[in-house]
Amino acid sequence: MQTLHSRAGVAPGYSRVFLISLLSSVSLSAAAIAQSVDRDKPPVEIGPVTVSPSTPRTAPAISPGNQKPRTARRATGRRPTAPIAARPTNPPAGDTTPLNTAAVAGVSSRLGISARETPATVEVISQQTMQDLGIRTTTDVAKAAVGVTGGDAPGAPAIFSMRGFSGDQLNTLYNGIPIGPSTMTGRPMDVAGLQQVEIIKGPDSLVAGLGATGGAVNYVTKAPHTGPIVNEAFTSYDSFNGYRAGYGSGGSTLIDGLDYRFDISHFNDKSFIEDSYSRLSNVSGQLNYRVNDSLKVWGAAEYRQDKDRFYWGTPIVPANGPGIVPTNGIVSGVWSNYYLGGGTPVPPTIDARTLTTSYNVLDNHSGASELWLRSGFQWDITNSISLRSQVYGYDAHRHWFNNEISSFDQTVGNFAGAQSIYRERLALDHAQRLYGNITDLTVNSSIGGMDNRFVATVAASNNQFNVSQDTLFFNDYVDLLNPDRGLYGPRSDEKIYTRVNTASLSFEDRLKLTSTFALIGGIRFEDIKLDRTRFFPDGTLESAKGYPFSTTFNPVTGRVGYTWDITPGVMLYSQYATAADPTVANIFILAPSVPLLLTTSRTYETGVKVLSADKRAEATFSAFDIQRKNVYVPESGIVFNIAGKIESKGIEIAAAINPIAGLKLWGNVAFVQSRFIDFNYVDGNGVFQSYSGKTPPNVPNFIANAGASYRFDTTLPVEIGGLMRHVGDRFNFQDNLLVMNAYTTFDAFAFVDIPKTYFPGVDRTRISFRVRNLTNKLYAAWGDPGYTDQIVLGAPRSYEVAASFRW
Predict the structure, then answer these.
(1) What is the largest CA-CA distance in the chain?
(2) Which of 41, 56, 67, 81 fits a disulfide with 177 by CB distance 3.0 to 4.6 angstroms?
(3) Which whole-number Å values give the CA distances from 282 to 285, 321, 609, 670, 741, in the listed order?
(4) CA proximity to 310, closest of 244, 401, 237
C-alpha cells in the first residue's frame, strides 16, 4: 500500500492523450488514402486486432525511499501487457491442444508466433480453462500454471511467485501494456472479462520491459469476433455467502465490417475472515471496423472498480505460551517477533481460536477505480509488410485505510493476558495517469531462400504516479481473542510525486534456416527518465533529504534462441535472455538515499515440447538457470544491504492427455532451488549477519498439480472431476527461521450440460457444483515479508453452485 492515489498534479495528462489520439486518427486517414493506391493488388484478409499465427501467405502477425519496509513495498494496480495494437487470437477449435500451446501469446514475442514456437516456457490459460477449473480471480490463475503460486497480500494484491522470484521481480501487463511495479499497481480482479492469461517464465525484458526478472503475466481482455452474435451469462453462489454474475455479448453488427464485444460482471468475494470481502465490478467494450480487406481500426474502453475490507493476516504466536491453543501444520521453525524486535526465539503457531478473527479497525476501507481507453489500427500495406499501432490512456485511483500490523508482543504481560497484539495503522492514496503508444512494423521476407520475419517496435509512455501517505503510523494494543477493533485515529499525510518517462526501440527476428530449424532473437533499447519530489505534511519541500531528484536508466536487454523440430511433434529449444530492474525496491519508490542503479538478470533455458500426431497428448519439459546480480534487500528498518546475487535453478514438467473420448488427465511439477549468494552485512546493532545460502521468501522448492475429469455421454451430459495441488515448504523472511509448512489441497466438481432441446432459445445451459479444499486443510497461503509477524491463511472448505448460459 506504498502509494494510494493523490489527485494533485495530473490533470494536464489527458490533453496529451487526446493529442496522441488525434495524431493516430491522422495516420489512419493517411493509411486509408495510401491503401487506395493498392486497389489492383489482390485483397489480403486481416483478422481482428489480434496476433495471428504464422501462415504460408506471410501476412504479418499481430499479435518512497525513507519509509518503513512495509510501506516501501506498497504499490497499486497492475496490468498485463502485450503490444497494445496486437491481441493474441484463440486458435481454431481444430488446433486446440491439451496444453494449449497452439495459442499465440503477446507477452512472449511480437512476432505473432504460438507458445509452442517460442524458445521459452510460455503458458496460455484460456477462458474455457478458467471456467473448467473454477478460476474466479487473477490470484486463482496461479493454480492453473506450472510452478506458480499466488497471494492476496492486501498491501500488494494479486502478486505471484515463480522460478524463485516474486512481487516486483515479475512484470504484469494488461493487453500488452505495462503500468508499473506489480506491488504498487496490482488489484484484485475478476477473470470474467478476460479472453486469456499469458505467462512467460524467466527474464523477459525484451517484450515486458523493466522488472520482468522472474517472468511476466499478461491479462488479455475479450475481443470482438466476426460472425453471428453470441451471448453468454453466468451466476454463482458459495457457502461464504459470496455471489458472482456477469453477461457478455459479441459478434458482427448490421453495419458491414463492424464487430463488437461487450462484457459486464460483478463479484462479491466474501472472505472466511469476519467482516472481510472484495467487491469487484467490471465493464468493458470494444469495436473493430474493417475499412477494407487490408485495414482495420478499433477502439476499446474498460472500467474496473474494487471495494474492499482487507484481511491482513493472522498473528503468529508462541506455541508454548500459556493459554495458547496451537494448530498443527501451518507454521514451524522458530520465531521471536520481527516487527517489535524482542523476545527469545520460540516454536511458532497460529492460535486455533483466531482462524477467522479480524484485527482491522472498524472503519477500514480499501479500493480502486481504473479506466482504460485504447485505440489503434492494423494495416497490411502489402502481402509481406504490416503496420499496427495503438494509443492508450489509463487513469487509476487507489486507496488503503487500515490497521496493517498485528504483531503478538511477547514482552507484554503474560501470553494469555489482554492487550497482547500490537497494531499499527497506515493510510495511503494513489493517483496514477499513464498514456502512451506502441507501434510495430512487421516484415516477412526471404533471405537466401530462407523464410524470415522481422518486427521493429517503437514505444513511448508518460507515467505520473502521485502518492499521499500517512506519516503518523498510529498504534495501539488489543486482545488476542477479543480485539476491540476501534477506529483508525489521527492522520497526517506527506505527498510524493513521481514521473517516469519511457521510450524504447526493439527488434525481433525469426530466421528459418530449414523447414524445421529456426533462429529467434531480439534486442531492446530503453531510455527511462525518473523524477521524484516529496513534501512534508505542512506542504514544504523535503529538500534536506535530497528531493527533488532525477535520474536516467538506459538498459539494453534481449533474447537469442532456437527451435528445432527433430521429428514431427517433437521440438527442442534453448534460449539465453536478460532483464533489468532497479536494485532497490521498485522505480516508483526510489529515494536519493539509496543506490539508484539497475540490477541485471539472465537465464539459460533448454527444453523439449512434444505433441502427439492426433493432438490428444502433449508434454513439455524445461530446465533453467537464472542469476540476478547486485541485489539489495531491506534490513534494519530503512537500511538496504547488498545481497550479492540470487541464483535460481530448476526444472518444470507438464503433461496432458485425452486417452479416450470423454476422459482428460493432466499434471505438472516444478522443482526450484533459489538461493542468496554472498549476502553478508552488519546490521544496525553492529552484529554481523549472513543470509548466504538462504531461500528468498515465498519460494517453494516443489509444486505439483494434477487433475482428471470424465464426461458421460448421456442424454444430459455429465462431467465429474477433481484437482490436487501440493505446495512445498516456504519461508516468510530471508533468515529462513519461520517455515510456512507444505500443504496439499483437493477440489472436486461436477457439470451438467443441458442441451437446447430442454430450453429453446438457449444453445447450452451448464449447471455446476464445486467443492474447494475438500479435506478442509489448514495452511499458510502467503507470507508477506513486509508483515513478518502475521500469516495469510488459506480458505477452509467451501461449496459453490453455478449456472451459465450461451445463446
Answers:
(1) 89
(2) 81
(3) 10, 47, 37, 34, 36
(4) 401
How many whole angstroms separate alpha carbon 342 and alpha carbon 393? 48
Quick one: residue 426, left, alpha or beta (phi over 0 = left, psi -120 to 50 = alpha)?
A: beta
CATH of the domain at 589: 2.40.170.20
Residue with cell 450440460: 753
Q: How far apart are CA 763 and CA 232, in angstroms?
A: 10
The residues with which 734 forms a beta bridge, in sequence order, are none
Residues comprising the chain, all counted = 807
Q: Taking a C-beta distance cutoff of 8 angstroms, is the pair 246, 200 a contact?
A: no
Cell for 453?
Answer: 520475419
For residue 659, is the peptide bond before it cis, meaning its omega torsion is within 30 degrees of 0?
Answer: no
Decide if 799 is inside a domain: yes
Which CA distances in Å does 387 have to 27, 60, 221, 443, 455?
A: 11, 8, 22, 9, 10
Q: Which residues pair with 369 in a beta bridge?
A: 305, 397
Report whether 391 contacts 20 (CB < 8 A).
yes
| Residue 330 to residue 258: CA distance in whole angstroms | 55
Residue 117 lies in a domain: yes
DSSP letter for each residue of 627-691: EEES-EEEETTTEEEE-BEEEEEEEEEEEEE--STTEEEEEEEEEEEEEEES-EEE-TTS-EEE-
Cβ–Cβ < 8 Å for 380, 88: no
pLDDT tens, residue by residue, 249-262: 999 999 999 999 99
- Residues 195, 197, 203, 209: is their CA dihedral positive or negative? positive
The domain tally of the chain equals 1
Please state whether beta strands 639-642 and 632-635 pair in parallel, antiparallel, or not at all (unpaired): antiparallel
Start-end of H helices in 192-307 = 205-208
The β-bridge relationship of strands 718-727 and 730-731 is unpaired
pLDDT digits (tens, 9 = 90+) for 536-573: 999 898 887 788 999 999 999 999 999 999 999 999 99
Contact predicate 556/537, CB 8 Å: no
How far apart are the C-alpha atoms of 595 and 632, rounded to whole Å?
A: 9
Q: Report angle CA 557, 558, 559 to the nearest 5 degrees.
A: 150
Query: How far is residue 343's CA from residue 322's CA, in Å, rounded to a whole number?
Result: 15
504 part of a folded domain: yes
Provide the pLDDT for residue 11. Answer: 34
Q: Which domain holds residue 560?
A: 13-360+382-806
Measure the CA–CA gap between 164 and 445, rounded to whole angstroms.
40
Is residue 316 included in any domain, yes or no? yes
Whether residue 607 contacts residue 623, with contact meaning beta carbons closer than 8 Å, is answered with yes
Q: What single letter denotes the amino acid at residue 738?
A: L
